[in-house]
Amino acid sequence: MRRYAVIKTGGKQYKVSVGQKLKIEQIPADIDSQIVLEEVLMVADGEQVVIGAPLVAGATVKVTVMAHGRGDKVRIFKMRRRKHYQKHQGHRQNYTEVRIDEISK
Asked: pTM to 2 decimals?
């Protein structure tokens, strides 16, 4: 069975394994640089599962920054009927695409 971990970044939690590519909230890092994510909530290696309270002590996940980009446009439309009020708005969220290189505990 493969080793995987649950990490927290950008206010969200992700289940990751080695070799996986993932789009996370934008982080200030250069492309092709390695960074270490230290907020690891759980590490599983086969039948051994270590759950943190709230974080696993000494566990890290090394990732390589692959690219930066912007997501698809989300259109927001607000309207109040019979009040002559309409509002159109759009939003594109920035993201960082990373590759999981190593999970250590």
From this structure: 0.84
